[in-house]
Amino acid sequence: MGVGEINRTQLPKKSGQVAPLILGLQPSALIDHVAKVDSSLLDRIPGDKGGSIPVAFEGLESILSEVKSADDPSPINTLAGGSVANTIRGLRVGFGVTCGIIGARGDDEQGRMFVSNMLSSGVNLSRLRTKEGPTAQCVCLVDAIGNRTMRPCLLGAVRLQPDELTIEDLRGSKWLLVRYAFHNLELTRNAIRLAKQEGMSVSIDLASFEMVRNHRSSLLELLKSGDVDLCFANEDEARELLSGEPKDGPEAALDFLAKHCQWAVVTLGPNGSMAKHGEKIVRVPATGETQAVDATGAGDLFASGFLYGLLKGLALEDCCKVGACSGGAVIRSLGGEVRPENWQWVYKQMNTKGLPAPKLANHVIIKDD
């Protein structure tokens, strides 16, 4: 772990500077190493295929070595990652929403890589601390049908501590995005408490089915607090949320989440998504016929599109449709970042469906609708 704050990464907030509309809390900056692999390699790695369990640095290095020494090695795509960063980057690049990241990065090559990638995407990093120590990393292994297996290396990585978060980090913004993680629970609770003091809305992503399974009671407590306005869960996370209950499927999870959050969303992969707001329930199919190259970031980019829809005041169904477009775009290439040509695909899909695409060609930036 780092030994205290050294400096802010970029552009100290100036008097009168407009705060980003949306802030993402990612305690540890993260670098993703994404590669296509044969299923036989996945058989040699501990843990469930398709899941996300932490590994030590030696384990991460061992997996990367396995990838590089394969009979037909795949190129490794290295870029800034993390669920919150993926969503924030998608909102900024694809939808023109002013966004920032709250967290910490190490004073190493990976930390500098994270900064470079996010700054080039236009994300505000004035709330990102730089600390002595390593930046978190994650290996993302993608099989032949596009399913991904994640092995994050977080042990020893620098991260933002609960007492380092201040009300000034949040002041002036409208939304706070968080990802549920038990090891960051105290920070998450503090961030939500401060966000509510500032009158902000809070969105949470349920992270992984393992996280829900292993730390369900704390998650339920957080949801039942009434402080979470929007919750995103995928189908596997939804099943774990109510595991052991008489009704434990995605539909039951959607109903449960909607009792405690204004908006509840359950994504169903190729089967689309469903969402609930008040008594309104919608089901929306996935967009496009393209075979998934890599499912990494699909849920994160769905959240980008859904949040854009909320900011534009779209109907619940249309929010899901925009999410389906952006989520469908990221799976067309490796990694959690949508390529420029795939953003053009998103806008074409939106226009076809009668959805308001952002006017990025005219440099229109959404500040507050």
From TrEMBL:
Keywords recorded for this protein, A-Z: Kinase, Transferase
Pfam families assigned: PfkB (PF00294)
SUPFAM superfamilies registered for this protein in UniProt: Ribokinase-like
InterPro entries assigned: Carb_kinase_PfkB-like, PfkB_dom, Ribokinase-like
Coiled-coil regions listed: none
A GO term, aspect molecular function: kinase activity
Domain Carbohydrate kinase PfkB residue range list: 72-336
Family note: Belongs to the carbohydrate kinase PfkB family.
Record-given protein name: Carbohydrate kinase PfkB domain-containing protein
UniProt organism field: Stephania yunnanensis
